[in-house]
Amino acid sequence: MSRPAVAYIRLDAFRHNYRVAKRMHGGRALAVIKANAYGHGAIQCARAIAEEADGFAVAAIEEALALRAGGITAPILLLEGFFEAAELPEIEANRLWIVVHHLWQVEALMAARLRSPLTVWLKMDSDMHRVGLAPGIYRQVYEQLQQHPNVAQVVLMSHFSRADEPDSGYTMRQMQTFRAGMAGIAAPVSLSNSAGVLGWPGAYAEWARPGIMLYGTNPFAGQQSGIGSAAGASLRPVMQLASAVISVRTLAAGEAVGYGGIFVAERPTRVGVVACGYADGYPRVAPTGTPVAVNGKLTRLIGRVSMDMLTVDLTDLPDAGLGSRVELWGDQVAVGAVAAHAGTLAYELLCNVKRVRFAYSDTSTKEL
Ligand SMILES: *Cc1c(COP(=O)(O)O)cnc(C)c1O
């Protein structure tokens, strides 16, 4: 017997979603598998598409070296580049691609002694105002790098801050800023994250950088706008976080359950206790009413989530009981819906999954 909390990772769904992203955007696509593939397992996800992926993107060299050690030979882009110049020899030795987003990196790269030149993704700050070079100096820096012996090729990139807001107009403005800043440069371009792929065809270029959509989450889900919904609907959830009911009791009206007694039964209420809690990554702040599926039927979380357990309402599910299967998120309960109840995003919930057993499957290797 072991604890029934399991994250099922369906690698065939991951592969399917990569194909959706690539087909929709056209050109080439870096699969963004930073943060251990948003909590899904970077090596497993990378291997699942190793034969067809144009490349991968991670946050930093540590993540890239783990992929190289795992046998991944495709290009790997470091999305924040290097944090200190001392990383450059290892970047070169492992044939990693680097984002250059700050002038100190430009200077360090040009001052480095390298045997072979590096592929550089030169990032412009097109009004997200987090990282990236100002549009006003972009072309000049591009020309410096492009002529420098340490640089093999330069890809022009920028990142959207509000691409998941269909009506904001901000994304159009970012595209204009980017186009103006790169005027006169002929080089490959990369703008689109998942929301860009799903919602902003005007930003399509040589390279896409899809992340969250590869895991089956449409960043537009739950919004009124139809943008991104058609392709978004064909995405398949990769992770199913599941567990089981380990205890059942019936509360009388007026009785409370769990820490703080924040849920008080208004009628006789059958409560199922599920082996999953915030130490597994289920959000503690999820309130009563957050959806959960038991034996394939939707019901609700009740009371406070504790470290190892949470409680669900079985009153209207007479067939459910000890041992019943519970889906915390996955196919019937979108991780984004749980996130919305908890006041956060699918990104954060997926990245937070831990302690549970991870079970990988890959059924449809022939699917196209
Ligand atoms: C994380 C990241 C992405 C992927 O974003 P999603 O919203 O998950 O698709 C793309 N580009 C950069 C620079 C990133 O940091």
Give an overview in words.
It is a single chain. By secondary structure, this protein is α/β, with parallel strands linked by helices. It folds into 2 domains: 11-233, TIM Barrel (Alpha-Beta Barrel), CATH 3.20.20.10; 239-361, Lyase, Ornithine Decarboxylase, Chain A, domain 1 (Beta Barrel). The chain contains 12 helices and 18 strands. An 8-stranded parallel barrel has the order 2-3-4-5-6-7-8-9, surrounded by 5 helices. Helix 7 crosses helix 8 and helix 11 (335-342) crosses helix 12 (346-352). The chain is elongated.
At the fold tier of CATH, the topology name of the largest domain is TIM Barrel
CATH superfamily of the largest domain: Alanine racemase
Strand content: 15-25%
The total beta strand count reads 18
Small molecules bound in the structure, each named once = pyridoxal-5'-phosphate
Mean pLDDT metric = 95
- Global structural class: alpha/beta
Overall CATH class of the largest domain: Alpha Beta
Give the % helix: 25-40%
| Low-pLDDT residue intervals, each spanning 5 or more residues | none
